[in-house]
Structure formats: C-alpha cells, structure tokens
UniProtKB/TrEMBL annotation:
Keyword Transmembrane helix: yes
PANTHER family linked: CHLORIDE CHANNEL PROTEIN CLC FAMILY MEMBER, H(+)_CL(-) EXCHANGE TRANSPORTER 7
Main location (coarse class): membrane
Protein name, UniProt field: CBS domain-containing protein
Alphabetic keyword roster: CBS domain, Chloride, Ion transport, Membrane, Repeat, Transmembrane, Transmembrane helix, Transport
Keyword Ion transport applies: yes
Membrane topology: Multi-pass membrane protein
Length: 286
C-alpha cells in the first residue's frame, strides 16, 4: 500500500504551488510503478518482518479452485472438552501455539457437539486465578446451585502496555493439576462455522470483511433448521420482542388467507415452494 495520492496532496499543501501538481503526480506514479516491480509497500514489509498475518485486499487467483478444506490440509485440530482437567489444559497450551481452541461435548449417543470457541488468553486467566477450579468432572449446570460471578470483564482484556499472561507465568501445585474447569461460562458460544467445501475465496473475504481470527470448518450438514433473510431482522422500535414472530421466506406450516381472518390456506399450497406460491398469487382470477 503506497500512499500516492496522499503524498501528492501533502506535497502540494507544503509547497503551496499548484503548478507543480502535474510534475509531482508524474514523479509519484513512476516511483510507485518502480517500487511495485521490486517489493511491497513499507507497511506490508514491516508486517511481514514482524510475522503479522496481514491479508491483501483481494485473494490470490489460485484460491478460486480451492476449498476451505484445502486451507488447513492434514493439520490436526486441537480441541478441549467442556469440562477439562487442569493438567490437560496446561499440556495443550505448552505443546500448541494456537490462540483459539474449539470446545466439544459428547452426547450420550456418542455424537460430538461443538459448544464454542475458547481463547488462549482466557484459559491463562482461568489458570492464574484458580477460582473456577472444581473437584467434580461434571458440568456445572448438572450440579446444585448457581455459579457465582467471580471475574470482571477487565481480567480477560489484555493490557495495551504488555503482552499479557504467558504459560510460563502459571504456577500450579500437584493438587491444582488434578482439578477441573467447566469452560462453558467463559467461551464464545457462537463462533463462525463454514462447510468444508466452501470456496476459499469466500473464506478469504470473510476474514477480510469481518476481521475474523478463527473460523471453524465442519462437514456439510444434512439437515437445515431454518432460513434467515434481511426481512427477518427488521423489528419495529418499541415492539415486544417476546411476541414478535419473524417472517421468514421459508414456507410456514400454518398460513392464513389474507382475504379473511381464520381462513386457512390448503395444505397443498403449504407444501409448494415459495416461487410457485408467488406465481400462483400473480395469476388473474376468473
């Protein structure tokens, strides 16, 4: 990123001579062309030297034929159970440099359920405070009582003047290592998830537009639970959200004819696709 236009405006403002504007623009354009032929801009080079994963404005051409599964390849996913042993958490943090870990829970039928995303910095805060350690390996919601509030929001925010807590700053006794932590109250319960066959170009744009750090990749689900459109997100101010039924483009099981209250549409129309229903409404009546 070379600030060609910005430098041109700055130099014209400094010299206060508009006659030099064409000459300055010509010099800057030639300089930019020569610089782009050899390397990236100054900011890109600094980000590369510091190891910052700075994404360009547009994805590479090769990504058009790649999928989300091709991005991570055979890389093994390091996950945590919902109720994790302290010793296991410390071992994972020491052996892995990831900043985010998926938290999974196993159902009784053996199915694995993704609970959310747990950040590395939040795990370090929990290990350092030790106030959430428990002796039971069961989830806290299955125990009696309610969990008291033991943390402030500022504890999970990394100070600007420091690098935060590292695993070397954690000192645990042998008794602490045998205890457990229920991660459910501290994780992000709604991480972004994409199917494994999603285009890598779209994945790239998601990271760019949403500023993501982590993105879960899962097999394409076989069942759809709903469909959300822009109209579903429109709620009038002052309207009781508890009594609002958001209108979706998916066909409802129970619809009413606008010609009269209480008049139900026949079941055949309910099973039609939305497009067929719209075409049927546009037909002239005899």
């Amino acid at each position: 990123m070379r600030m060609t236009v910005s430098l041109c405006v700055i130099m014209v403002e400094i010299t206060n001579n508009l006659k030099l504007l064409p000459l300055i623009m010509l010099v800057l354009l030639i300089s930019k062309a020569v610089g782009d032929a050899f390397n990236e801009g100054l900011y890109e080079e600094q980000a590369r030297l510091k190891g910052i994963p700075l994404l360009e404005s547009k994805p590479k051409y090769q990504m058009r034929t790649m999928t989300a599964k091709d991005a991570f390849g055979n890389q093994k996913v390091v996950s945590l159970p919902r109720v994790a042993k302290v010793a296991d958490i410390v071992s994972i943090l020491r052996s892995s440099k990831h900043n985010g870990f998926p938290v999974i829970d196993h159902k009784r039928n053996g199915e694995t359920l993704v609970v959310g995303l747990m950040l590395r910095s939040h795990l370090l805060v929990l290990l350092q405070s030790k106030v959430d350690f428990q002796h039971s390996p069961l989830p806290f919601d299955s125990l009696s009582g309610s969990r008291p509030i033991s943390h402030n929001f500022t504890e999970f925010v990394k100070p600007v003047s420091s690098k935060g807590i590292s695993i070397e700053d954690i000192h645990l006794s042998s008794d602490d290592s045998e205890m457990y932590i229920d991660l459910a109250p501290f994780l992000n319960p709604s991480p972004y998830v994409v199917p494994e066959d999603m285009s890598l170009t779209k994945v790239y744009n998601l990271f760019r537009q949403l500023g993501l750090r982590h993105l879960f990749v899962a097999p394409r689900p076989s069942r759809i639970v709903g469909l959300i459109t822009r109209k579903d997100l429109l709620i009038e101010d002052g309207e009781d959200t508890a009594n609002v039924e958001l209108q979706s483009t998916s066909v409802r099981l129970h619809r009413h004819d606008p010609r009269g209250p209480g008049t139900s549409v026949r079941s055949l129309d309910v099973e039609r696709p939305l497009l067929n229903g719209l075409l049927a409404q546009d037909r002239p009546s005899n």
